[in-house]
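Checklist before submission:
- one chain only
- standard amino acids only
- sequence pasted in full

Submission:
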Amino acid sequence: MAPVPAPDESSSQGEHNDGNTMNNSMEILLLQLQQERRELSSSSTAEIAENYDGDTGKISATATACHAFAESLRQFVSSQHVSQQANNNAENHLSNEANGGNEKEEEVTAEWLLEQCTLFVQQPHVSLPMEALDLALTIASTCQEHKEEAEYNVQAALFDVLGMEGFDLLQQLVPLAQQIALHISPEALLQQTQTAITITATEPNNNNTIMVDVEEERRQFLLEEARHAAHLAAMARSALGDDSLSSSSSQPKKNKSVASMTHSVTRASDVAARKEAKRLQKAAATAREKARAAGALVDLEQDFGTSLLLLNGNGNDDWTGPIDPHGVGQLAPEGTREFYEPKRLPTGTERTMHEGYEMVTIPPPSSIKMGERHPRLVIADNMSAACGKAFAGTDSLNPMQSAVFSAAFHSHENLLICAPTGAGKTNVAMLAVVAHFRDQGLLPSENTTTNNNSNAPDPYAAYAHIGATSNSSSQQQNQHQPPVRAPKVVYIAPMKALAQEIVEKFSSKLKPLKLIVKELTGDMQLTRAEAEAAHILVTTPEKWDVVTRKSGGDDTSLGRQCGLLIIDEVHLLADDRGAVIESVVARLHRLVESSQRQVRIVGLSATLPNYKDVATFLRVDPNQGLFYFGPEHRPVPLQQQFIGITTDQRDRWKREQKMNDICYDVVSDSLRRGHQVMVFVHSRKGTGETARALTERAVQAGELDRLLLQENDTSSSGGSSGGNPVHGKYADRVSKSRNREVSEHFGNGMGIHHAGMLRNDRKLTEQMFADGAIKVLCCTATLAWGINLPARAVVVKGTEVYNPEKGGAVDLSILDVMQIFGRAGRPQFDTRGEATLITTHDALTRYLDKLVREVPIESNFIKQLPDHLNAEVVGGTVTNVQEAATWLAYTYLHVRMLRNPLAYGISFDQKEQDPMLKERSMELVEGAAKMLDQYRMIRYDAGSGNLASIDLGRVASHFYIRAESVATFNEMLEKLPAPSDADLCHIICCASEFENVKVRAEELPEVDEILKNKKACPLEVKAPVEEFSGKCCVLMQAFISDERLKSFTLISDTNYIASNAGRVSRALFEMCLRRGNSSAAAKLLRLAKSIDKRLWWFQTPLRQFGGEVPFNVYTSIEHAGKGDSFETAISLLDMTAKEVGQLSHWFKGGDKVQKLASYLPRVEIKCTVQPVTRGILKFQIQLDPAFDWNGRFHGGAEGFWLWVEDGENDRIYHHEHFIFSRRNHPEPTVLEMSIPAFEPLPPQYYIRVVSDTWVGSETVLPVSFQHLMLPEQEMPYTDLMDLTPLPISALQEPKFEQLYTTKFDNFNPM
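Returned file contents:
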């Protein structure tokens, strides 16, 4: 090989002085180096060995040019590559187009790919943990694997390899992917590595030579070849997921145990994959032997990765450790880019093909051995007798509860318990509850032994005298003194149904301890006295968020009385509702820090992949309060089945029918064995459809009576049952249900359950299933959260869930699947559980992958950030964007942004420059603040960063109204300065809270029928019923009119609308009240009360007494009345009882009707006006309650709204809320207020008093200004008097006179 002549120093110096000359020379030298490399490549190893010097072991080659320019060339290419690559690509593309595409394409060779990978890896911003050869091998294998697929699939696969950093290289490789797959093989890349010998420069010497160790290069080549071959073999085996390769080839097949196989594969493609994996293993073993013979691999312990150790000399696998072909073990588990990490399904998994579907059966995990379990703690030996009353009926704690006992019962540490469903997490919460009230002195703390150690002192002995005192006189305290104001326990349940179950369970267990448990949800409101008396409040995240929002800085408020917060199913952080939990916990953390009070947090969760992140969010000490229990701790073994439908995916009807067939097979199999089944679907409508489909198949198979009705049940409508006596016990209650589907399916031995049903119907269905009156329950995920029912088998039918944000169906999350699976085989009912998921064949692979490769739960807080930021600004805890960024650091969002910045739009460069992401937090809160300022919910000063709350934001926060709804209200109210009742009804129904209400084609005929019925829908509907706002408007009016609906889905939607419309209308009322819009405020309050009472304001207000009198009485009074309905009802008091009886067509009940009329709240108003100035008037208003008080109808207090309005200008000048109390009745209330007056003074103002709850109760008093004497208008200036100007001598002080002598002699008139 001829040496390359070196340029002289002067030439080199001149090149450094002239940039253009330098570039040209470097291009020439680059060509020379490439020619030199080609010559080396063409030389064989034998030819190189001919120049081998035995004495020195070196090969001499003149390389002056290489030595002089190699380093500068490398630096030049590295610095220029990134900035020039995109430009060069664009120029080449334009040049090719200009030449008509005749330009020759770039030659794709192994050398070219290695050069591209080398340049990419050397870039300073690239953090890819790969060498250039590894990257080139990965790219070549990826292109080979996807060569038959579409270009976007190839692009996605290469993006997984290169990441965002390699986007430029990605653009270059994608068009050439087919050529890379055809022309570049792994062998070619390894051969190129062998021939392109790395030239290692020594110190410059007189001969200008570079010494290269050929033997070392040969060993490195063989080692690299063995490494790559081992990687390919390991990846093939991992992709196959089969342990059969690990068995010796000499072992007979009949000796293979089932445990050595994960799947029973029957597909031809899997057989071919197994053959290919065996071939690659043999090739890898051969390569390893070559490397070992050459000395590249000294012994088995000197490895270059787990892949090489997988192989033995015979080409078989004797390695039992984990496979890590890409070095995933060296990555942090919370790394933002997840490489391929082979994981397998549990041992014993079977995979079989059937007609129309594929089934994967996963056996229950192996239980923990007795020696490895925590010993069961006996309750009587570890806590006082009083504390043990809460665990009546239980002698000892299970191993999981025993492991947690010390931290839960004998410490104040925050806790996070991650355990599978059915492991007994609720009893852990009970331990924390009992410990809390023991520490507060409400329970006696006896000196008992702990952990079977009689010498161990009781750490709570100091509380003994407190407990004894309170216990000895507890009965007298309860009778003569108010309850002890101890910090309360707040239990946050994910759903109202679970909250009801927790209340029942805790009430029964804590009743001996005289602790009061109350439910505080949307279905169950509490008075202030009831809330104060309760020791434990069971609520939902949204309800507790509202309570804490309204607490403000009042230490006596309910939100400030929490001493123990228990959050059940904390893995809901991954759900859209998780943002509420983040807000509640962040608010509590800040309260604890600011008030320096102790509030304990206990989080209960299913198994989580990133439980440490959740622990960080909850401020849990990982060494003291974090407990993680795997699926092996589930007390009831659970077998899982995953079924993938192989029917044509484009034919939705066939796919649905196949799912129903498989569902029936699973359900009937369980019923034959005498077990109950729960079938979960993902829509309310789907519950009834699935129940009917199962009934049809049971009838066709002739098994309806035998399986579902216990053979002897002869009644198809819920009559008495001979075979199932419990079935007949519920027949009468079912017949009284307004939900026709409940009675329809009950007759077939089945039931339905979802959130759209009335609470009584849901409760009835749960009781029937628990008692065995029905055998199959078709339900939605409302029953997946903590409700314990005796179901041996659980079936999830379908996995497509509609996502309104994405406008289509998405896969049910794996967390939700595991939550539903947990309903099977509850410990108190069964000894085994069976769970089945039925989905499409495409989704089957995704779910199996998610099962073995758990994905961390992420935060959804950014989407709801404006709403929660507004709540903090209103609460006064955030006053500027700096404090807002600090508040954001308390959320789970901040924890996950630090762990996984790419998922939240944060680049690696941003993370490196700002490790704590303070700038990103500022960007988020500033964006939210600008949005809120645009919606006029807060005031944001971009200069100072200050945030201030205003009326609109306060109303939105207190009534839990979304920012998008507020923006909609602002826009629509501006367009309608004087809205009618129909306009206001339309505005309410345009709120974003109702966007989830779907319009279904099959419902439109009934909706149109309601629309035409003026009794059911008296107000005009301003939007078409094909839109959600139009449908909501029709159903809301039907709800007020008490119209009986036929469609089950319409009933469900109406209940949802009714539960939110009252809150939205109240919020709109207060918005208009603060805007000063009097007519809109009066109409909205009227509409809000009508929704609450299901009564129109033009109907008689006597209807609010319900069944006190026959309903025809109300109709007769309405027909006889003229004008205002409230005045008509009050006028009955001026008649005799006989006249009232004749008017109401109830002759014997005239006196009772009069008595009810006297209960209607009405207020007599007296007002005196005194002018203070010409622009301010003093109103003194006396309000007399002119009605009889009845505690049954009025309770302890009645609230009223009062405002002073200008009828001509439709403006409210003053408003306030006042209360009449039972204790002070019938004493009048006197109010004084200052009202502005504007000239010209209107003829009168109006004082309007409206009941806050009673429909129709309104009183209006006009206040005339005709005889009002206003003060005379004062002149704005002082008149000058006709006086002689005074001389400066009038000052009588020479020194003062000198000040003016040079200016004037006399003062002017002023």
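Reviewer check: The longest strand covers residues 1211-1221.
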